[in-house]
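Help!! Second protein's tokens look totally different from the first
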Amino acid sequence: MTAVPRGGGRAGRLILAATSLSALGDGFRYTALPLLLLAVGAGTDTLSTAYVVNSVPGVLFVLFGGLLSDRYPAKRVVVLVDLVRAAAATVFTVALVLGAVTVWWVYLLIFVLATAEVVYFSAIQVFLADALDRSDLGVVNGRVASVTTTANSLAGPGAGAFLFGLAPVLPFLVDAVSFVAAAVCNGRVPTPRRTPGGAPVGRTGPAGAVTLLAAGFRTTFSDPVLRGLFAFAVARAFAAAAVLSVLAVFVVTERGLPVSHYGYVLAVGAVGGVLGGWLVSRYGDRVPLWRSTWVANIAFGLSFASLPLGAGVPVIGGLLAVNLAAAVWTAVLAATHRQRVVARDELGRTSSVLRLGVGVATVLGAAAAGLLGDVVPLGGFFVALGLGVLVVCAPFPRPPRPRAEPPVGPPGGARAERDGPVDVTA
């Protein structure tokens, strides 16, 4: 097999271009939607409902997304999802031009795009594994995380607010165009007819949907490394959702900072996410997976527990930057590990099992913040959340003993181990 240049070659560049374009459009929309809701007279109850609508598909459809990605070529699924998102954004744009948009139109757009994103999450994990050489996965995963954070949290929001000020329709129009451009880029990514391990890409066999989904759970929880990474991710997701859902109250109300400073805090924190993606793309394959993940989880917990010490943008934003850098580092290493050791015909479902756990933890974390945020001081609440992450992660500094063989696919499925077992301690 011809060696692929480090960084993924043409496939890696096209995937990064597609990710950058769609993430930038997403950043425009993330800023424009709340502004649009406020423009039509929405209150806090409407905004919170929009958050719930955005979260529901992550619980309802995530397993379906993983199953779809395993039964059909991932490239086809990714391109189809991009086109569906482009169509939804286009219809919304036309409705906005015609003056027909109501709050329910906004809810519908959020629901459709969130559902498509759930499918996209599982499909892109398989797509990367299909399109890239095994040695390039860590680099490209890190770059994808970095450009996504840059577009979503730095470039996108400011530009989206500017475009909305010019004309409310512009952010949504750009979002629709970005999805079309992403579909074109992803469609041009060269992918092999067969995975490196020799497994055919396509349907996994006659096994029923329930059997196939059960295999995804079995793969996740029977492997000690995957099981540990799952537990770490769920703990981080619960804490992050609880903190971020009330962070604005902490910054503006408890610390008495101007509203604009909340935006500054998020911007400083986003720099940490970009830095984390850059670091893991350069050094993620050079350090032990489990030990570096353990250190990052400790940093994640300590940064939340230290938030009460912050009184201004530099400290609060700096702690948030450390937190996001640690989160990106751990998420990228975990995704790369799954792509390298999980059978091709189980990768989508295994990724969706993680997404399900994270989705449930996110909803529960946000609910906990809503219930306790007015009862206990937020500073103490943040300390408890940070300590909770430490309790889950700190006792396990050494990696569990990995299985000698990769997970076995479902009945009738193909086994697709790539290039032999991976030593997770190296």
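Here's the second one for comparison:
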Amino acid sequence: MKSRVIVDAFFEENNLVKHHIDSFNSFVENKVQKIISEVGGVTTEIKSGYRVEFGQVTVSKPVNKEADGSVKPITPMEARIRNLAYSAPMYLEIVPYVGEGEEEKKLSPLSVYMGELPVILGSDICHLKGKSPEELIEFGEDPEDPLGYFIVNGSEKAVVAQEDLIPNRILCEKVEKNNKMVDVAKVFSTRHGFRALCAVERNPDGLLNVSFPGMPSNIPLVILMRALGAQSDRDIIELISDEPSVIMQLVANLQEVREEHSINTREDALEHIGKRVAPGQPREYKLKRAETILCSYLLPHLGVEPADMRTKAKYLGRMAKNSIELYLGLRVEDDKDHYSNKRLKLAGDLMEDLFRNSFNQLVKDIKYQLERQSIRNKEPSIQAAVRSDVLTERMRHAMATGNWVGGRTGVSQLLDRTSYLATTSQLRRVVSPLSRSQPHFEARDLHATQWGKICPSETPEGPNCGLVKNLAVMCKVTTDETDDSIIDLLSSMGISREIIPIAEEVELIDSLDSEIEKELRVELAEVSETQETEEIKEIEESDVEENSEVGVTSEEIVETEKEVEYEENSEDTTTEENSEDKEIEKELE
């Protein structure tokens, strides 16, 4: 009975589809503006000079524009009956700039309608948010309906959570290539929707090679480290490890680059990369193209500026160290099926990917429309250049068909209304991206780390067994946090992003240890002093309490004084008697 009360109290605050609703709320509140701020604006090729900057975005509650031009709020039931989309209008503040250089002039900002955003039922911008059961009945809704789904063209669509490997974390594994085992350390580097697989491989000959997007073939690690700013062999070794066993494995790599490729400077390394990415081009273009590839495609989650090169070299050194340690047996393979190495893409995360892709298409169309107006000798007009259908139709098409960005299919599905259990089961479903035609025995197994997160029994039979799962009944999924907020928090705690060489790092740690030791000694001395003063105060207070008598009469004081005098006299007599006895003993002797 007590457990039932606890369960009821839990579900009063936590809806069965709360994970999807919270994720969508986070997307609307933070990520929509973040995506727009990443783009920043549009710079056209108009000769007279014309560009626009994007400001704040406003997302309203769902409305519908009627045939007569009137706009009124729309309820979910009305959207179902009239085969409409339950979506919210978005308005973007756009600031135009005319002219070039010092003659550039800022025009007044405009609030432009940019399109409609599908709204999940029960979210903060939904008309059903915070309604009582009686009010929900007036809206034509079932008070027991879990919500957490979309309505597109009158059809109820459920977005299924997608299971994926964790981004921006190094994973080590042994892979068989050409009947030989290769030790690999890889990371799915993800930044602003762009995902790049970067891997460091140690082949059977002991040579370390790196692969990443933009590079036609694998490149030796030492060459890449030189291109990132590690000038000497000592710098490369310090960036990787100070363990003798690991350093011994690096000797062959350093010799191979020095003897076969004759690369000793950063410029030589950049030219070597430029020959691969821009063959047949002038030398200056090769060097510039090589730097662009390293900035944009190599570990983009660490930054895309030239100042981030040193950080990328440090991270590559860590990946190389993990690969060598895996070969030496100092490290075990990472378990890809461990749930700490998994992440779930919920409704908000999937909508973020879709909105980023759709908004980028809208930005390209805005630039094309502005330049087209200029070619036709028309004055550029933002209101005419922003075609809201570009963003709206792309998002609605993906929601209606389930074909998502990145080639994923079946992301949105028609809501199963067979029963209440079928509906809630579909809204709490988790799908793995692995192919159904392959065995994937380990991925299909019930991993011990799924305890409390994934239901151990609810999975279909056949090829989807173990790949289509459901969340446990009381499982809660947290929303992700942006990297910038975590970096700001660490910076406020005094942690620096600067990469310090190992030798300087040791000196810095020693100096910090000595300073900390001095501070501890001072604190201990202060503590001991305070303890001594407190003990002295306690002793004095106890003496005062013993000598002080409260509510004593004058007669009692006189009696106590007499007793004290009598005790003193008795003590004097006893001392005199003792002295007389000693004199008698001396005479007898």
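Reply: Different proteins will give different token patterns, so don't panic. The domain at 16-165+341-483 is CATH 3.90.1100.10 (Rna Polymerase Beta Subunit; Chain: C,domain 2).
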